[in-house]
Amino acid sequence: MITGAVQDRSARGIAAAVSRLITSGRLPAGARLPTVRTVATGLGVSPTTVSEAWRNLILAGAIQTRGRSGTFVSGPLPPRARLRYAQLGGARVNLPRDLSTGVPDPLLLPGLSEALCRIGDGRWAGSYLDAPVLPGLEALLRERWPYPPDRLTVVDGAMDGLDRVAGAVLRYGDHVLVENPAFPPLLDLLQALGATVIGVEMDSAGLVPDALRKAIRDYRAVALFLQPRAHNPTGTSMDASRAALLANVLLEAPHLLVVEDDHAGAIATAPPVSIGRYLPERTVHVAGFSKSHGPDLRLAAVGGPAHVLESVADRRLLGPGWSSRLLQGVLLDLLTDPGAVARVATARFVYAERRSSLLKALRDRGVTATAADGINLWMEVADQQNALVALAAHGIAAAPGAPFCVTPLDGDHLRITVGLVADGYDDLADVLAAAASPTTRGSGRRGFGHPAGWR
Protein backbone atom coordinates (compact mmCIF):
# COMPACT_ATOMS: atom_id res chain seq x y z
CA MET A 1 0.00 0.00 0.00
CA ILE A 2 2.74 2.45 0.96
CA THR A 3 4.87 1.97 -2.14
CA GLY A 4 1.88 2.54 -4.40
CA ALA A 5 0.98 5.80 -2.65
CA VAL A 6 4.40 7.41 -2.88
CA GLN A 7 5.01 9.76 -5.82
CA ASP A 8 7.89 11.81 -4.39
CA ARG A 9 10.60 9.41 -3.18
CA SER A 10 12.41 11.90 -0.98
CA ALA A 11 12.15 11.49 2.78
CA ARG A 12 9.65 14.35 2.94
CA GLY A 13 7.58 12.86 0.10
CA ILE A 14 7.47 9.42 1.71
CA ALA A 15 6.42 10.93 5.05
CA ALA A 16 3.71 13.00 3.35
CA ALA A 17 2.33 9.96 1.52
CA VAL A 18 2.18 7.86 4.69
CA SER A 19 0.60 10.77 6.54
CA ARG A 20 -2.14 10.96 3.88
CA LEU A 21 -2.77 7.23 4.23
CA ILE A 22 -3.16 7.65 7.98
CA THR A 23 -5.43 10.70 7.67
CA SER A 24 -7.66 8.97 5.14
CA GLY A 25 -8.00 5.92 7.37
CA ARG A 26 -6.34 3.54 4.92
CA LEU A 27 -3.68 3.03 7.58
CA PRO A 28 -5.75 2.88 10.78
CA ALA A 29 -4.45 3.48 14.29
CA GLY A 30 -2.65 0.39 15.52
CA ALA A 31 -1.66 -0.83 12.05
CA ARG A 32 1.84 -2.22 11.89
CA LEU A 33 4.07 -0.65 9.25
CA PRO A 34 6.44 -2.69 7.11
CA THR A 35 10.12 -2.54 8.03
CA VAL A 36 12.35 0.26 6.82
CA ARG A 37 14.26 -2.15 4.61
CA THR A 38 11.06 -3.52 3.05
CA VAL A 39 9.80 -0.04 2.17
CA ALA A 40 13.22 1.00 0.89
CA THR A 41 13.43 -2.03 -1.37
CA GLY A 42 9.92 -1.47 -2.68
CA LEU A 43 10.60 2.18 -3.50
CA GLY A 44 14.14 1.67 -4.77
CA VAL A 45 15.61 4.14 -2.26
CA SER A 46 18.14 3.83 0.55
CA PRO A 47 17.04 2.71 4.04
CA THR A 48 18.44 6.01 5.32
CA THR A 49 15.82 7.92 3.30
CA VAL A 50 12.98 5.82 4.72
CA SER A 51 14.43 6.11 8.24
CA GLU A 52 14.36 9.90 7.93
CA ALA A 53 10.73 9.77 6.79
CA TRP A 54 9.86 7.55 9.76
CA ARG A 55 11.60 9.96 12.15
CA ASN A 56 9.56 12.87 10.80
CA LEU A 57 6.35 10.88 11.29
CA ILE A 58 7.38 9.93 14.83
CA LEU A 59 7.98 13.59 15.70
CA ALA A 60 4.60 14.45 14.21
CA GLY A 61 3.00 11.85 16.48
CA ALA A 62 1.65 9.87 13.55
CA ILE A 63 3.60 6.67 14.21
CA GLN A 64 5.47 5.17 17.15
CA THR A 65 8.16 2.54 17.59
CA ARG A 66 7.79 -0.30 20.07
CA GLY A 67 11.27 -1.75 20.04
CA ARG A 68 11.46 -5.20 18.51
CA SER A 69 7.68 -5.29 18.17
CA GLY A 70 7.91 -2.92 15.22
CA THR A 71 6.53 0.47 14.16
CA PHE A 72 2.82 1.23 14.40
CA VAL A 73 0.33 3.92 13.42
CA SER A 74 -0.47 5.89 16.55
CA GLY A 75 -2.88 8.45 15.17
CA PRO A 76 -2.76 12.13 16.15
CA LEU A 77 -1.61 12.87 19.69
CA PRO A 78 -1.99 15.99 21.85
CA PRO A 79 1.28 17.96 22.15
CA ARG A 80 2.15 16.77 25.67
CA ALA A 81 1.60 13.13 24.77
CA ARG A 82 4.26 13.45 22.08
CA LEU A 83 6.91 14.09 24.69
CA ARG A 84 9.09 11.14 25.60
CA TYR A 85 9.07 12.34 29.19
CA ALA A 86 5.27 12.11 29.32
CA GLN A 87 5.45 8.48 28.21
CA LEU A 88 7.52 7.45 31.23
CA GLY A 89 4.60 7.78 33.62
CA GLY A 90 1.99 6.43 31.23
CA ALA A 91 2.05 2.96 32.76
CA ARG A 92 1.82 4.07 36.39
CA VAL A 93 -1.94 4.49 36.74
CA ASN A 94 -1.58 5.01 40.50
CA LEU A 95 -0.21 1.53 41.11
CA PRO A 96 0.73 0.67 44.70
CA ARG A 97 4.45 0.23 43.97
CA ASP A 98 5.79 2.85 41.60
CA LEU A 99 9.28 1.97 40.36
CA SER A 100 8.99 4.14 37.25
CA THR A 101 9.95 7.51 38.71
CA GLY A 102 13.76 7.59 38.76
CA VAL A 103 13.70 9.61 42.00
CA PRO A 104 15.83 9.04 45.12
CA ASP A 105 14.48 7.43 48.28
CA PRO A 106 13.33 10.37 50.47
CA LEU A 107 14.31 8.39 53.57
CA LEU A 108 17.95 8.48 52.45
CA LEU A 109 18.13 12.25 51.87
CA PRO A 110 19.81 14.50 54.45
CA GLY A 111 17.36 16.46 56.60
CA LEU A 112 16.94 20.16 55.84
CA SER A 113 15.55 21.37 59.18
CA GLU A 114 18.87 21.87 60.95
CA ALA A 115 20.45 23.46 57.88
CA LEU A 116 17.54 25.88 57.55
CA CYS A 117 17.82 26.80 61.22
CA ARG A 118 21.54 27.45 60.88
CA ILE A 119 21.30 29.66 57.80
CA GLY A 120 17.79 31.14 58.09
CA ASP A 121 18.82 34.40 59.77
CA GLY A 122 18.29 36.74 56.85
CA ARG A 123 21.95 37.03 55.89
CA TRP A 124 21.10 35.80 52.39
CA ALA A 125 18.67 38.63 51.58
CA GLY A 126 21.40 40.53 49.73
CA SER A 127 20.79 42.67 46.70
CA TYR A 128 19.65 42.18 43.15
CA LEU A 129 23.16 43.21 42.16
CA ASP A 130 24.97 40.61 44.30
CA ALA A 131 26.92 37.84 42.61
CA PRO A 132 24.59 35.02 41.47
CA VAL A 133 26.61 32.39 43.38
CA LEU A 134 27.47 32.58 47.06
CA PRO A 135 31.25 33.07 47.31
CA GLY A 136 31.63 30.24 49.84
CA LEU A 137 29.65 27.82 47.67
CA GLU A 138 31.57 28.75 44.53
CA ALA A 139 34.89 28.22 46.31
CA LEU A 140 33.80 24.79 47.51
CA LEU A 141 32.47 23.78 44.10
CA ARG A 142 35.67 24.85 42.37
CA GLU A 143 37.70 22.85 44.86
CA ARG A 144 35.67 19.73 44.01
CA TRP A 145 35.28 20.30 40.25
CA PRO A 146 36.84 17.53 38.13
CA TYR A 147 38.84 20.13 36.15
CA PRO A 148 39.49 23.88 36.54
CA PRO A 149 36.53 25.69 34.90
CA ASP A 150 36.83 29.22 33.49
CA ARG A 151 33.46 30.19 34.90
CA LEU A 152 30.95 28.59 37.25
CA THR A 153 27.33 29.37 38.09
CA VAL A 154 24.38 27.81 39.93
CA VAL A 155 21.05 27.07 38.22
CA ASP A 156 17.71 25.50 39.15
CA GLY A 157 18.57 21.83 38.69
CA ALA A 158 20.51 19.77 36.16
CA MET A 159 17.85 19.93 33.43
CA ASP A 160 17.72 23.71 33.82
CA GLY A 161 21.47 23.74 33.29
CA LEU A 162 21.23 21.57 30.18
CA ASP A 163 18.39 23.71 28.85
CA ARG A 164 20.34 26.94 29.31
CA VAL A 165 23.55 25.57 27.81
CA ALA A 166 21.68 24.07 24.85
CA GLY A 167 19.85 27.34 24.28
CA ALA A 168 23.12 29.23 24.29
CA VAL A 169 25.05 27.02 21.83
CA LEU A 170 22.51 25.28 19.57
CA ARG A 171 20.64 26.56 16.53
CA TYR A 172 17.79 25.00 14.58
CA GLY A 173 19.01 22.10 12.47
CA ASP A 174 22.30 21.58 14.33
CA HIS A 175 23.48 18.00 14.62
CA VAL A 176 23.91 16.87 18.24
CA LEU A 177 25.42 13.61 19.48
CA VAL A 178 23.96 11.79 22.48
CA GLU A 179 24.25 8.39 24.09
CA ASN A 180 21.82 5.73 22.93
CA PRO A 181 19.87 5.17 25.15
CA ALA A 182 19.61 8.67 26.64
CA PHE A 183 17.53 10.59 29.20
CA PRO A 184 14.08 11.30 27.64
CA PRO A 185 13.75 14.92 28.86
CA LEU A 186 17.06 15.74 27.19
CA LEU A 187 15.80 14.25 23.92
CA ASP A 188 12.58 16.28 24.27
CA LEU A 189 14.62 19.42 24.90
CA LEU A 190 16.85 18.92 21.87
CA GLN A 191 13.81 18.16 19.74
CA ALA A 192 12.11 21.36 20.92
CA LEU A 193 15.20 23.32 19.84
CA GLY A 194 15.00 21.75 16.38
CA ALA A 195 18.24 19.81 16.68
CA THR A 196 18.99 16.71 14.65
CA VAL A 197 19.95 14.15 17.27
CA ILE A 198 22.40 11.34 16.53
CA GLY A 199 22.52 8.37 18.90
CA VAL A 200 25.95 6.90 19.65
CA GLU A 201 26.37 3.29 20.75
CA MET A 202 27.29 2.50 24.35
CA ASP A 203 28.94 -0.44 26.05
CA SER A 204 29.61 -1.23 29.71
CA ALA A 205 32.15 1.61 29.97
CA GLY A 206 30.12 4.34 28.27
CA LEU A 207 30.29 5.71 24.74
CA VAL A 208 32.09 3.40 22.31
CA PRO A 209 35.10 5.34 20.93
CA ASP A 210 34.85 3.87 17.42
CA ALA A 211 31.12 4.66 17.29
CA LEU A 212 31.82 8.22 18.39
CA ARG A 213 34.53 8.55 15.74
CA LYS A 214 32.15 7.35 13.03
CA ALA A 215 29.43 9.78 14.15
CA ILE A 216 31.91 12.66 14.11
CA ARG A 217 33.00 11.77 10.59
CA ASP A 218 29.45 11.22 9.30
CA TYR A 219 27.89 14.35 10.80
CA ARG A 220 29.24 17.81 11.53
CA ALA A 221 27.83 17.82 15.05
CA VAL A 222 28.22 20.93 17.18
CA ALA A 223 27.75 19.29 20.60
CA LEU A 224 27.97 15.98 22.45
CA PHE A 225 25.72 15.45 25.48
CA LEU A 226 26.66 12.60 27.82
CA GLN A 227 26.29 11.34 31.39
CA PRO A 228 29.75 10.55 32.81
CA ARG A 229 28.48 8.65 35.89
CA ALA A 230 25.44 6.56 36.82
CA HIS A 231 24.03 6.85 33.30
CA ASN A 232 20.24 7.01 33.28
CA PRO A 233 18.92 4.41 32.42
CA THR A 234 21.76 1.86 32.21
CA GLY A 235 23.78 2.79 35.32
CA THR A 236 27.01 2.86 33.33
CA SER A 237 29.90 5.01 34.61
CA MET A 238 32.80 6.15 32.47
CA ASP A 239 36.28 5.63 33.91
CA ALA A 240 39.34 7.82 33.39
CA SER A 241 40.70 5.47 30.72
CA ARG A 242 37.53 5.70 28.61
CA ALA A 243 37.39 9.48 29.11
CA ALA A 244 40.95 9.75 27.76
CA LEU A 245 40.07 7.62 24.72
CA LEU A 246 36.99 9.73 23.97
CA ALA A 247 38.97 12.95 24.39
CA ASN A 248 41.46 11.67 21.84
CA VAL A 249 38.62 10.95 19.39
CA LEU A 250 37.17 14.41 20.00
CA LEU A 251 40.40 15.99 18.83
CA GLU A 252 39.09 15.17 15.33
CA ALA A 253 36.23 17.63 15.89
CA PRO A 254 37.74 20.83 17.34
CA HIS A 255 34.44 22.68 16.86
CA LEU A 256 32.42 20.25 19.01
CA LEU A 257 31.36 21.20 22.57
CA VAL A 258 31.06 18.47 25.22
CA VAL A 259 28.22 18.86 27.74
CA GLU A 260 28.33 16.48 30.72
CA ASP A 261 25.35 15.79 32.99
CA ASP A 262 26.72 14.44 36.29
CA HIS A 263 23.22 14.17 37.75
CA ALA A 264 23.90 11.46 40.37
CA GLY A 265 26.57 13.48 42.13
CA ALA A 266 27.60 12.26 45.57
CA ILE A 267 25.46 9.09 45.51
CA ALA A 268 27.45 7.74 42.55
CA THR A 269 29.81 4.94 43.49
CA ALA A 270 32.24 5.72 40.66
CA PRO A 271 34.72 8.56 41.28
CA PRO A 272 34.19 11.90 39.50
CA VAL A 273 35.36 11.86 35.89
CA SER A 274 35.23 14.38 33.07
CA ILE A 275 36.46 14.84 29.54
CA GLY A 276 37.17 18.38 30.76
CA ARG A 277 40.34 17.01 32.34
CA TYR A 278 41.68 16.67 28.79
CA LEU A 279 39.63 19.28 26.91
CA PRO A 280 38.72 21.96 29.50
CA GLU A 281 38.26 24.68 26.88
CA ARG A 282 35.53 22.62 25.19
CA THR A 283 33.74 20.94 28.12
CA VAL A 284 30.74 22.13 30.10
CA HIS A 285 30.14 20.07 33.25
CA VAL A 286 26.78 20.09 35.05
CA ALA A 287 26.90 18.87 38.67
CA GLY A 288 23.49 17.94 40.09
CA PHE A 289 22.43 17.74 43.74
CA SER A 290 18.85 16.51 43.39
CA LYS A 291 19.62 12.80 43.78
CA SER A 292 22.02 13.30 46.68
CA HIS A 293 20.55 16.21 48.63
CA GLY A 294 16.94 16.55 47.53
CA PRO A 295 15.01 17.17 44.27
CA ASP A 296 13.19 20.17 45.73
CA LEU A 297 16.41 22.06 46.43
CA ARG A 298 16.29 22.67 42.63
CA LEU A 299 20.01 23.33 42.45
CA ALA A 300 22.83 22.32 40.12
CA ALA A 301 26.18 23.87 39.29
CA VAL A 302 27.42 24.51 35.76
CA GLY A 303 31.07 25.12 34.98
CA GLY A 304 33.06 25.41 31.78
CA PRO A 305 34.44 27.76 29.12
CA ALA A 306 33.89 31.45 29.75
CA HIS A 307 32.19 32.14 26.41
CA VAL A 308 29.47 29.55 27.14
CA LEU A 309 28.94 30.36 30.82
CA GLU A 310 28.89 34.10 30.22
CA SER A 311 26.21 33.63 27.58
CA VAL A 312 24.17 31.53 30.02
CA ALA A 313 24.58 34.03 32.86
CA ASP A 314 23.80 37.06 30.69
CA ARG A 315 20.64 35.48 29.29
CA ARG A 316 19.56 34.48 32.78
CA LEU A 317 19.67 38.09 33.88
CA LEU A 318 16.65 38.67 31.64
CA GLY A 319 14.69 36.00 33.54
CA PRO A 320 15.16 34.74 37.10
CA GLY A 321 18.57 36.39 37.47
CA TRP A 322 19.87 33.90 40.00
CA SER A 323 18.96 30.78 41.95
CA SER A 324 17.79 31.34 45.52
CA ARG A 325 20.76 32.33 47.67
CA LEU A 326 18.85 30.96 50.64
CA LEU A 327 18.79 27.50 49.05
CA GLN A 328 22.42 27.95 48.03
CA GLY A 329 23.15 28.54 51.70
CA VAL A 330 21.30 25.34 52.60
CA LEU A 331 23.32 23.41 50.02
CA LEU A 332 26.61 24.86 51.28
CA ASP A 333 25.65 23.83 54.79
CA LEU A 334 24.75 20.29 53.69
CA LEU A 335 28.00 19.93 51.75
CA THR A 336 30.08 20.86 54.79
CA ASP A 337 28.09 19.62 57.83
CA PRO A 338 29.63 16.32 59.05
CA GLY A 339 26.21 14.81 59.81
CA ALA A 340 24.82 15.59 56.36
CA VAL A 341 28.00 14.39 54.66
CA ALA A 342 27.77 11.10 56.58
CA ARG A 343 24.12 10.67 55.63
CA VAL A 344 24.89 11.09 51.91
CA ALA A 345 27.73 8.59 52.24
CA THR A 346 25.29 6.14 53.86
CA ALA A 347 22.84 6.66 51.00
CA ARG A 348 25.58 5.92 48.48
CA PHE A 349 26.34 2.63 50.26
CA VAL A 350 22.66 1.67 50.60
CA TYR A 351 21.92 2.33 46.92
CA ALA A 352 24.89 0.13 45.97
CA GLU A 353 23.55 -2.66 48.19
CA ARG A 354 20.08 -2.38 46.67
CA ARG A 355 21.43 -2.48 43.12
CA SER A 356 23.61 -5.46 43.89
CA SER A 357 20.84 -7.39 45.67
CA LEU A 358 18.22 -7.04 42.93
CA LEU A 359 20.75 -7.52 40.14
CA LYS A 360 21.96 -10.79 41.68
CA ALA A 361 18.41 -12.02 42.18
CA LEU A 362 17.58 -11.28 38.54
CA ARG A 363 20.73 -12.93 37.24
CA ASP A 364 19.96 -16.02 39.30
CA ARG A 365 16.71 -16.16 37.32
CA GLY A 366 18.40 -15.70 33.96
CA VAL A 367 17.35 -12.09 33.42
CA THR A 368 19.79 -9.77 31.64
CA ALA A 369 20.04 -6.39 33.38
CA THR A 370 22.56 -3.67 34.18
CA ALA A 371 22.74 -1.53 37.31
CA ALA A 372 26.37 -0.58 37.82
CA ASP A 373 25.76 2.77 39.53
CA GLY A 374 23.08 5.23 40.59
CA ILE A 375 19.46 4.37 41.40
CA ASN A 376 18.21 2.69 38.21
CA LEU A 377 18.24 -0.79 36.71
CA TRP A 378 17.95 -1.41 32.94
CA MET A 379 16.31 -4.77 32.26
CA GLU A 380 15.85 -6.66 29.00
CA VAL A 381 12.34 -7.94 28.30
CA ALA A 382 10.87 -9.89 25.43
CA ASP A 383 8.11 -7.33 24.83
CA GLN A 384 7.89 -3.95 26.51
CA GLN A 385 4.11 -3.59 26.52
CA ASN A 386 3.46 -7.14 27.69
CA ALA A 387 6.00 -6.71 30.48
CA LEU A 388 4.39 -3.46 31.67
CA VAL A 389 0.97 -5.10 31.74
CA ALA A 390 2.31 -8.12 33.60
CA LEU A 391 3.92 -5.91 36.24
CA ALA A 392 0.78 -3.78 36.56
CA ALA A 393 -1.17 -6.94 37.37
CA HIS A 394 1.12 -7.23 40.42
CA GLY A 395 0.66 -3.59 41.36
CA ILE A 396 4.09 -2.55 40.08
CA ALA A 397 4.85 0.32 37.70
CA ALA A 398 8.05 0.54 35.66
CA ALA A 399 9.26 2.93 32.99
CA PRO A 400 9.10 1.69 29.37
CA GLY A 401 12.45 1.58 27.62
CA ALA A 402 11.38 3.01 24.25
CA PRO A 403 11.33 6.70 25.30
CA PHE A 404 15.02 6.42 26.26
CA CYS A 405 16.06 5.19 22.81
CA VAL A 406 17.15 7.59 20.09
CA THR A 407 16.61 4.66 17.75
CA PRO A 408 15.44 1.16 18.73
CA LEU A 409 18.01 -1.08 20.40
CA ASP A 410 18.45 -4.77 19.72
CA GLY A 411 15.73 -5.63 22.24
CA ASP A 412 13.03 -4.18 24.48
CA HIS A 413 13.83 -2.87 27.97
CA LEU A 414 12.28 -1.50 31.14
CA ARG A 415 13.84 0.93 33.59
CA ILE A 416 13.34 -0.03 37.23
CA THR A 417 14.07 2.51 40.00
CA VAL A 418 15.98 0.03 42.14
CA GLY A 419 16.93 2.80 44.57
CA LEU A 420 13.38 2.59 45.96
CA VAL A 421 13.58 -1.18 46.60
CA ALA A 422 14.56 -1.67 50.25
CA ASP A 423 13.71 -5.36 50.69
CA GLY A 424 11.92 -8.35 49.18
CA TYR A 425 14.43 -8.76 46.36
CA ASP A 426 13.65 -12.41 45.65
CA ASP A 427 9.90 -11.85 45.47
CA LEU A 428 10.33 -8.81 43.23
CA ALA A 429 12.82 -10.67 41.04
CA ASP A 430 10.29 -13.49 40.55
CA VAL A 431 7.73 -10.99 39.27
CA LEU A 432 10.23 -9.14 37.09
CA ALA A 433 11.58 -12.38 35.62
CA ALA A 434 8.09 -13.56 34.72
CA ALA A 435 7.35 -10.20 33.08
CA ALA A 436 10.63 -10.30 31.14
CA SER A 437 9.65 -13.65 29.57
CA PRO A 438 12.40 -16.27 29.32
CA THR A 439 12.13 -16.82 25.57
CA THR A 440 14.17 -13.82 24.44
CA ARG A 441 16.50 -13.02 27.31
CA GLY A 442 20.20 -12.45 26.84
CA SER A 443 20.81 -11.22 23.32
CA GLY A 444 24.56 -11.40 23.90
CA ARG A 445 25.24 -8.11 22.16
CA ARG A 446 28.30 -6.03 23.01
CA GLY A 447 26.71 -2.66 23.53
CA PHE A 448 23.46 -0.93 24.37
CA GLY A 449 22.61 0.44 20.92
CA HIS A 450 23.75 1.69 17.55
CA PRO A 451 24.26 5.15 16.08
CA ALA A 452 21.42 6.65 14.12
CA GLY A 453 19.70 10.01 13.74
CA TRP A 454 16.30 11.58 14.07
CA ARG A 455 14.93 15.06 13.92
Automatic annotation (TrEMBL):
GO molecular function: transaminase activity
Ribonucleoprotein among keywords: no
The keyword Zinc-finger appears for this protein: no
Domain HTH gntR-type: 8-76
Record-linked Pfam families: Aminotran_1_2, GntR
Domain of life: Bacteria
CDD domains, per the entry: AAT_like, WHTH_GntR
SUPFAM superfamilies assigned to the protein according to its UniProt record, in alphabetical order: PLP-dependent transferases (SSF53383), Winged helix' DNA-binding domain (SSF46785)
Matches recorded under PROSITE patterns: HTH_GNTR
Record key words, sorted: Aminotransferase, DNA-binding, Pyridoxal phosphate, Transcription, Transcription regulation, Transferase
Chain segments annotated as coiled-coil in the UniProt record: none
Family in the record: In the C-terminal section; belongs to the class-I pyridoxal-phosphate-dependent aminotransferase family.
Name of the molecule in the record: Aminotransferase class I/II-fold pyridoxal phosphate-dependent enzyme
Organism (species): Actinoplanes sandaracinus
